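JOB MANIFEST
job_type = single_chain_structure
chain_count = 1
residues = 359
[input]
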Amino acid sequence: MTFSLVRRIVIKERAKFPRRLYTSEGSNLPTWKETPDCPVISTEDFPNLRREELAGQRTLRIAILGLPNAGKSTLVNQLVFRPVCAASSKVHTTRIMADAIYCQENTQLVFIDTPGLVTKNKSNEFNLEKSFSTHPGESIKRADIIGIMQDAYNTFSGCKINSQIMEILERSKAIPSILILNKVDIIKKKEILLKLVKSLTSKEGWPHFKDIFMVSALTGDGVEDLRTYFLDCAKPRNWDYERHIFSNQSFEDLIVQTVKAKLLDSLPNELPYILKPEMEHFTIRPDGSISSIVLIDCPSDRIAKLVLGRRAIRVKTIAQECEQNLLNAFQTPVKIKLDVKFKGYLRSTCSLSFPAPGC
């Protein structure tokens, strides 16, 4: 990529910044609740999905790769207009590879969200699953295009492409790749972006990127342009999923992943990484709403008290935030009851579990 082309790209993006960034109010992007209603489907429908045989169908599979906390899941949620990927302010929120699906007219986009790439030492430090090393590579095998996401605000890791990502790109030269710079709204001096793009697309970086996009996954700025680009790149091909499917994960998995993400945001330091929420009960009611009970097994009395918070305010707040997040994702009311269990104590739903309002 020539320097003049890079310059044109940056100047084009730079012209967008004076306008007000996208927000959930007053923007031209639909909010979560403005998306079309989707009927609740049985989790039994996930293993064997019937393909729609409609003429003119087009689809594109996009693998989003990047380092932990680069904003991959937040971006995917913006692209599909639903918070279907668990996201938090801490690293290693995404633990498994998952598909998020967006349909527009005759085109289907399948976004493959993957765990952040980590070293073996980091994997051992956080006791991470084997998926952290295997899933990014597996996602490439299915992808039609690779999106490399860089945290433009991180001066340490954002200015160079990670060696693990470089290895994947080298092995997958036949698959088109694009560069996605995230968190550009935080950068005050936009000249920094020109230097950053020049560095990332140089011979020391990856000069084979087909296109470059600058976005803010948190605010939604630039996301519409990226979504339109993917829609234009879609290939004539039968869809992978039926129109009403928005994730290949079961409802139970999505609920547990959401609880984990809220624990990461609510608890200090490394504490939430040792907690393993588990689904105890799940049911779809006759009116289409969802009711569930999630068990949070704590290894000690001290940790259980931290999870509960003073007068159980913390765990109640977590339940309420999970309900709202899942309402936006499922497009149907969700009631979550969180059971907190002490090590060495019998769980009591009267004294230790605190349902969110309406349970």
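[summary]
The chain is about 30% helix and 20% strand.
The radius of gyration is 21 Å.
exit_status = 0
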